[in-house]
Amino acid sequence: MCAGLRGQVCERTAAGFDEVLHRMSAPLQVAVAGRIKSGKSTLVNAMIGRRVAPTDVGECTRLVTRFQYGTVDRVEVVFHDGSKQAVPFDTDGGIPAELGVELDRVSHLEAYLTNAVLRDLTVIDTPGLGSLDAASVARTEQLLGAREPGADDLDPVSRSAVAGAEAVLYVVTQAVRADDQQALDAFTAATASRDAGPANAIAVLNKADTVEPDSVPGSGGEVWRAAEALAAEQAALLGPRVAEVLPVIGLLAETAETGGFGSADAEALRALAQLDEADRLTMLMSADLFTGWECAVPGRDRERLLERLDLYGVRRALAVLADDPEITAGKLRRVLLDCSGLAGVRARLDEVFRARADGIKAAAALASVTALAQASGDPGERQRVHDAIEVLLSRREAHQLRVLEALTLVTSDAVRLPEDLAAEVLRIGGSADPGSQLGMAGRPRHELVQFALERASWWRSFASFGATPAQSRVAFVVHRAYFLIWQQLQAGQVPAPG
Length: 498
Hints:
Helix content: 40-55%
């Protein structure tokens, strides 16, 4: 479509199309956003599997940093004028906390890493919203990407239309605030009006280990169960802006996944496990008691454990050692990683983002193309782009774009549906797995086949006879989604559950 339109639009819009095409061929860009001190950079390190993003307050935590795949590890400071300056990693292999340049001149940082995770996913670490530093907040809200070749030829409006992340991983802690909703709105404004929704937004409840079980009814005194219940409450508050909220312990995930836990830490835990039980229980009551209590384990070892595992991780490790005193450091690390909840976050990232990256990028590209045409000020150009998009969306291959469009219409309340039908649209559009799309995960295939056909028929009838014109537009898309799932199941293209 862009190639066909290129000769029918002005030079500036054509340059924007080139940038859109470049973005289409690049990995999906996921922004990690949230309030200040919510543990975003720690989570980024865990996702990448390397402690490279600075987590202590410094210059770099006030800048947007894009982590992407490269054949050679390097970090570049990108200035507002488009020039770049390479900076060395610090002695620990991370981005240095201080850059030695004037921050007012800096647009963002580009970190290139020889990391397999980044081959199909560019991760954007953002400054915290709620910071007292207005410039840092502005950088986060803009979510500016790199100025690729051709981008400098664009006016500010056109450049903003092609910049920005295509999906967001939003980090919350125990209290969801009004500005968390505003931050998700800021994501929408910064990405060519591509609304945050269950197709392109996931939230995580970070620092899940700090949830007090007694404050959550039905937790049974278990921290993780309490965190899951709290995450479900937050999902209701943030919905339908996000697909769901998942609990995670970013510090534990970072330590276990980036090589921060080694044999020396395992030995320090073994020494703690051999202490008198009364002393050990007393020490685990608070951080001050843990590091200040007089015992045979050196204070510096306990401080290191607290810094890397926090008290929750120490307690879990000691419980494992009580059951298996001979467990190796490697196995103990894997247990701690399992306790962090990172596997669940990664699985959801794969299901919501990676499996649908082409559709998410294509939807973002269409929004950018529309914004570019609007910015041109030429009514004829706008109409030609509009007509071309309508032709594109009428094609069979564009069905996934129609689903994402329907999802956006429902989540933004542009099309209102009864609550149960709206939830059904969110379910269909919020997953790539047929069982999850049907709300019947784990059920036998023949039941999935029957249900998909039943719902396809129901939505077609609703579209034809019971819906308003706006609802009908969504209903026909949902009907076709169910019909295609039915065809896929009939053809045996979906593995049987289990």
